[in-house]
């Protein structure tokens, strides 16, 4: 029983990271109807920035906040420079754009900081949380920061004018323009926020997976799985999907024989395919009906 | 009377297809003008061209200022509220959020709250349902919501695209009565596009008749309603 509880709690902790990645993916999907394949690399790059800042002597939380701001601005810049000109391009062109972005960021990070893995600090320490052996302080910190982030986002979208405008622009762009919302900038803002959310995921998971240019590959696949499971049109579903996938991953690794670390990724992919076959809109997503 | 909206030689295109062929008309401050015509005559395109939602050439002036080449969202800030065909409701948001979105370009918080209450007094049904998702409203209620959302801008000019479409006759009467009141009491000029010519002519003071992208008739609404030839050849009643 203790093993079970332990695995569930650990699953919730990594699930928090998947939830963040899924949320970042969903935010961009809502705005432009495409998956951002480079979301993980953007998060990895942000994490390197924070590491570099700490190498230069900044305290953790200062580096954390500066990295958030950098990622937000970077996300907006990527949208303005790369994807705004592609708005009306065919879908394959856009996908090519995402893949280009993926390799550019990955190679650039490798060139700058090389591919050897690096230790990444945690501000929470890794002692037992509240004296319990079930969960470490860093895992508790991951969950805590994620919950804080989710609450903040909820209030932003529900109770602020900009949040309302962003939701309107994503839901019915033409009507949004007719009430005076600059939908193009709302998309850019969505990119900025997605990049910032991704950077939080990167900085929180880096102490666990270690810092290197390919650190987010697996995490992003799990983020995709979470988003698909919860429904690509539902931010709430994506978050719940993140936690479910995290728990599922850990329990499968513990209780199904032969499922070790090597089999974890195929499990995520199998999950994506099963959801797409059984319930394509995900648990909480809306079925999209397109007029042709 | 001065012209609030002046349209000269308007030509609009969908891809290679030309939909408007040099259309000119004007709308006086405080007037309730209707644009009539059959299906495909170019009524909707005219409204869309005013808000720069379709490629067009020609001059469009609002209070003497040119609107050409302004983006749709910046044209709204001139005080032009467009209720599009199909009403443009944000269906998965609440009634109240829809109203707030109508005022999203305004900064005066207290006045916005007061305006929402004012809309509820115009449309009591909306107050009853203010926490409901807008998509769950009936067609008539959604049209009321669309008009209320447009008024939340405190517009100088309201563009309405077939507000009667798909509504029961009684609901249409109700709605047109409210439009008349808004025009009189709130001093909002209105340009309404309609297929229901009879009703629109009762409501409006000025009327234009469009056929295949050109104005073929214009004048006081009462005169056009009384002209049997016009009625028979263009309006079909």
Automatic annotation (TrEMBL), chain A:
<protein>
    <submittedName>
        <fullName>Branched-chain amino acid ABC transporter permease</fullName>
    </submittedName>
</protein>
<keyword id="KW-1133">Transmembrane helix</keyword>
<keyword id="KW-0812">Transmembrane</keyword>
<keyword id="KW-1003">Cell membrane</keyword>
<feature type="transmembrane region" description="Helical">
    <location>
        <begin position="185"/>
        <end position="209"/>
    </location>
</feature>
<dbReference type="InterPro" id="IPR052157">
    <property type="entry name" value="BCAA_transport_permease"/>
</dbReference>
<feature type="transmembrane region" description="Helical">
    <location>
        <begin position="60"/>
        <end position="83"/>
    </location>
</feature>
<feature type="transmembrane region" description="Helical">
    <location>
        <begin position="12"/>
        <end position="32"/>
    </location>
</feature>
<dbReference type="Pfam" id="PF02653">
    <property type="entry name" value="BPD_transp_2"/>
</dbReference>
<comment type="similarity">
    <text>Belongs to the binding-protein-dependent transport system permease family. LivHM subfamily.</text>
</comment>
<keyword id="KW-0472">Membrane</keyword>
<feature type="transmembrane region" description="Helical">
    <location>
        <begin position="95"/>
        <end position="115"/>
    </location>
</feature>
<keyword id="KW-0029">Amino-acid transport</keyword>
<feature type="transmembrane region" description="Helical">
    <location>
        <begin position="265"/>
        <end position="284"/>
    </location>
</feature>
<feature type="transmembrane region" description="Helical">
    <location>
        <begin position="221"/>
        <end position="245"/>
    </location>
</feature>
<dbReference type="InterPro" id="IPR001851">
    <property type="entry name" value="ABC_transp_permease"/>
</dbReference>
<feature type="transmembrane region" description="Helical">
    <location>
        <begin position="135"/>
        <end position="157"/>
    </location>
</feature>
<keyword id="KW-0813">Transport</keyword>
From TrEMBL, chain B:
<dbReference type="InterPro" id="IPR003439">
    <property type="entry name" value="ABC_transporter-like_ATP-bd"/>
</dbReference>
<dbReference type="InterPro" id="IPR003593">
    <property type="entry name" value="AAA+_ATPase"/>
</dbReference>
<dbReference type="InterPro" id="IPR027417">
    <property type="entry name" value="P-loop_NTPase"/>
</dbReference>
<keyword id="KW-0547">Nucleotide-binding</keyword>
<dbReference type="Pfam" id="PF00005">
    <property type="entry name" value="ABC_tran"/>
</dbReference>
<comment type="function">
    <text>Involved in beta-(1--&gt;2)glucan export. Transmembrane domains (TMD) form a pore in the inner membrane and the ATP-binding domain (NBD) is responsible for energy generation.</text>
</comment>
<keyword id="KW-0813">Transport</keyword>
<keyword id="KW-0067">ATP-binding</keyword>
<protein>
    <submittedName>
        <fullName>ABC transporter ATP-binding protein</fullName>
    </submittedName>
</protein>
<comment type="similarity">
    <text>Belongs to the ABC transporter superfamily.</text>
</comment>
<dbReference type="InterPro" id="IPR052156">
    <property type="entry name" value="BCAA_Transport_ATP-bd_LivF"/>
</dbReference>
<dbReference type="GO" id="GO:0005524">
    <property type="term" value="F:ATP binding"/>
</dbReference>
<keyword id="KW-0029">Amino-acid transport</keyword>
<feature type="domain" description="ABC transporter">
    <location>
        <begin position="5"/>
        <end position="237"/>
    </location>
</feature>
<dbReference type="InterPro" id="IPR017871">
    <property type="entry name" value="ABC_transporter-like_CS"/>
</dbReference>
